[in-house]
Design goal:
This protein is of the alpha+beta class. About 35% of the residues lie in helices and about 25% in strands. The chain contains ten helices and 20 strands. The structure holds zinc ion (2 copies). The site of one zinc ion (ZN) has 4 residues, from loops. The site of one zinc ion has 5 residues, from loops.
């Protein structure tokens, strides 16, 4: 699997006339090698690839990385002055691509000390490969979704009088580890009452407010892949006002889901949801994009947003998460993950989106 991915990248090196690509983004390194550690670089050459890491990660390299990438011990060695010259002697390095979205200006200046090479900025080469998931990757996301849904149901069971948003966020993070995840894929959002009108509210020490929306936006990281789901439930009671707003969000989500298929642009799907919310008088209350790709990272391409020009293709995984946020009152969001299939889409989530009153 990893050698096939490296070969795809090598073809791109040839097309673009580069001798090697220096990969510094950790999610990209994981995609190309399986390495889950936090310090490494990959130098992918046209015939040979090198895995650059220091003493702390040698044992991890042995268990996670196969022989398609040769270990190069860079403990205490400067990249531009020692590592690159040594590799250049073996495979020749004249033009080297680097990941311009990931390399800081100061890191670039240090790199440039390798005077024998010319550095060429690249963007999105590996991200473009990651956009189309293999069936095996889809299964990993599906597994991350299953455990996310299990934990969500468990956490609803501990919603009682006096519980705070932070209590519930803690339950989510604790249960992630107990259920075998490496962690949450992002810090959970648990927002009750007026807090729920902030799309990225996170959580506070505030107790849940009866008769208001209670938004959970949570995801698990399992086996290297992420899930991401939002459900807005109601604590104690769902007043008619919120029932009506909830119905609009749900209709927007369901209609957008029906529009997800290969060959449509992300912005076209976004528009389906946005038009429904706007027609209901809430256009200005839906200020974010409809969704995003997901996989090794919780936010990846393609985007379902007004700026989403990329055409969807089979194998994409995207979230569909419309919301309506009423300033000073509260907000509703519902989010599931969809797989783009050959002729439409499949909702990988299984939990219903009916109005749910808890506590
Ligand atoms: Zn989310
Ligand atoms: Zn999301």
């Amino acid at each position: 699997m990893y050698s096939a991915r490296l070969n795809t990248l090598r073809q791109r090196l040839e097309t673009e006339g580069l001798d090697a690509l220096l990969v510094t983004s950790l999610p990209n390194i994981y995609y190309l090698s399986g390495f889950t550690g936090s310090t490494a670089m990959l130098l992918v050459g046209r015939t040979q690839s090198f895995f650059l890491t220091d003493f702390r990660y040698h044992e991890q390299y042995k268990t996670e990385v196969d022989d398609s990438c040769e270990l190069f011990d860079n403990t205490g060695k400067e990249l531009a002055k020692v590592v690159l010259p040594a590799i250049a002697e073996r495979i020749g390095l004249n033009t080297i691509g680097f990941e311009s979205d990931n390399v800081t200006y100061s890191a670039f200046e240090k790199l440039s000390a390798f005077a024998a090479g010319r550095f060429v900025p690249t963007a999105g080469w590996i991200e473009d490969m990651r956009i189309r998931k293999t069936p095996e990757e889809v299964e990993r996301v599906r597994a991350a979704i299953r455990v996310n849904e299990t934990i969500f149901n468990e956490v609803l069971g501990v919603v009682v009088d006096g519980v705070t948003e932070a209590d519930l966020a803690a339950e989510i993070e604790y249960r992630a580890l107990k259920h075998g995840c490496s962690g949450v894929s992002f810090s959970p959002i648990v927002a009750s009452g007026v807090n729920s009108c902030r799309p990225h509210a996170r959580f506070s020490q505030q107790q849940l407010v009866p008769g208001t929306p209670l938004t959970f936006d949570m995801g698990m990281k399992l086996d290297g892949y992420c899930s991401d789901m939002t459900r807005t439930v109601f604590f104690k009671d769902c007043p008619p006002r919120w029932e009506q707003v909830y119905g609009i969000v749900r209709e927007a989500k369901d209609s957008a889901a029906a529009a997800i298929r290969p060959g449509v642009q992300g912005r076209e799907v976004d528009k389906v949801a946005r038009d429904i919310i706007t027609a209901a008088g809430h256009g200005e209350h839906f200020g974010h994009g409809l969704g995003h790709g997901i996989g090794i990272e919780v936010h990846e391409a393609p985007r379902l947003a007004t700026v989403g020009e990329r055409m969807l293709e089979a194998g994409n995984l995207v979230t569909n998460e419309p919301g309506i946020y009423l300033p000073g009152e509260g907000g509703i969001r519902i989010e599931d993950i969809f797989l783009v299939t050959d002729n439409g889409s499949e909702n990988l989530n299984t939990l219903p989106t009916d109005i749910q009153v808890v506590g």
